[in-house]
Amino acid sequence: MKEKKNKEIKILLGVTGGIAAYKSAELIRLFKKEGFKVKVMMTKNATRFITPLTLAVLSEDKVFTSLFSQDEEYEEIRHISLAHWADLIIIAPATANLIAKIAHGLADDLLTSTVLAFTGNIIFAPAMNSAMINNSIYKDNVKYLLEKGYHFIDTEKGNLACGDYGDGRMADPVNILNSVKERIKKNFSLKGKKVLITASATREPIDEIRFISNRSTGKMGFSLAEAARDRGAMVTLITGSTCLHDPWGIKTIHVNTAREMREQVMTYFNDTDVFISSAAVSDFKPAHQFAGKIKKKEQHSLNLELERNIDILKETGEKKTKQILIGFAAEVKNLKENALDKLKSKNLDYIVANDVSREDSGFASDTNKVLVIDRKGRETDLPLMSKYELAGYILDNVQHNFENHGNGIVL
Ligand code: CTP
Fold first, then answer.
1. For 166, phi and psi rounded to 5 degrees?
2. Ligand 1 atom having least distance to the Cα of 310
3. Domain of 168, in residue numbers
4. Model confidence pLDDT, tens digit, residues 14-58
5. Atom 8, ligand 1: which residue's CA is nearest?
6. Do 311 and 355 fall into the same domain?
7. Is residue 204 classed as helix, strand or coil in its secondary structure?
8. What is the pLDDT of residues 207-220, one digit of tens each?
């Protein structure tokens, strides 16, 4: 079972020119034993320490050493196709030179170009002399890359190739494997799952330039979409009006009205594993839309007749088969009672109850303070946290469901 799961994970191993390059052979063997798919790229200097043939035999694939193919024939743009192929890049050993190049955005060979073109997780397993590892320039480069979200596996103390004793040995391949597995567990927990998310406010037109809407900005829904993407899910985000940019790696669909949002949700719903409805959908809409612009001199007062809008989440609750359904409850009083009512009436697996009257929570804020209630009525009162953190918490629960039950039913 574990092996089958790992087979879906594609690791691109970058090997740079250091004596520890010989350990990359063992690393490939360990990755393959775990069931990962492995491709290898090497710098020119790395090929002086270990032959591409050795790594090709172990990885059971061609080893890439150059941006260009040997013959003159056209083939795909290698650094881009490798970057698209990989789920995760690990560079082991990573020399001080390679780390400096990446920190400065250099892309002068296949390995550095691929790293620059890659949008997923990148892990460095450095190896160098202890004087180099303590050099403040190297330390500054590492600090900068850590701030940028790159990951490092600590070097180990021991006898170094130069005869010195000290820090700088590349981590043992088994330790590298364990670090990679840990990162995968974190980042690929929703790999292969389809997650559908609605965000932001709908707009219901009064005339051609005016509308009824609300204060939702989409921050929660976008954070959920990004967190799901960062866990390896295929994410479709259906958003109402927002100032936020479309997040990378996420199919983002823009809609105006609740009706348009409903249509898009229903298009994707059957083929979805998880539906998270964070949009603030207008419950009412004008019964008639005026043509053009309503002119004030033509009327002293204006009565707008409003009618109930469709409830998208309720409809998905009725249609639900395998999907995990998560709703949000925007409340200003009786938080728990109202949230429980929505959980039941909309047939949800989780409800995230928001007190939208708080300054630090709900619409437009970067943080949220919520009470999460599951289908069985189990409550978790969460502390104030960023919307991305909250998204992570919600998705951890989703993952837990898949691990324990394989589908969306909370038993
Ligand atoms: N929702 C929906 N379609 C609607 C209204 C709400 O899909 N027409 C979804 C929201 O995205 C949210 C949940 O239902 O996940 C609850 O929304 P909320 O606005 O809190 O509650 P309502 O059901 O609209 O009820 P009320 O406004 O009376 O509190």
1. 165, -165
2. 8
3. 6-187
4. 999 999 999 999 999 999 999 999 999 999 999 999 999 999 999
5. 311
6. yes
7. strand
8. 999 999 999 999 99
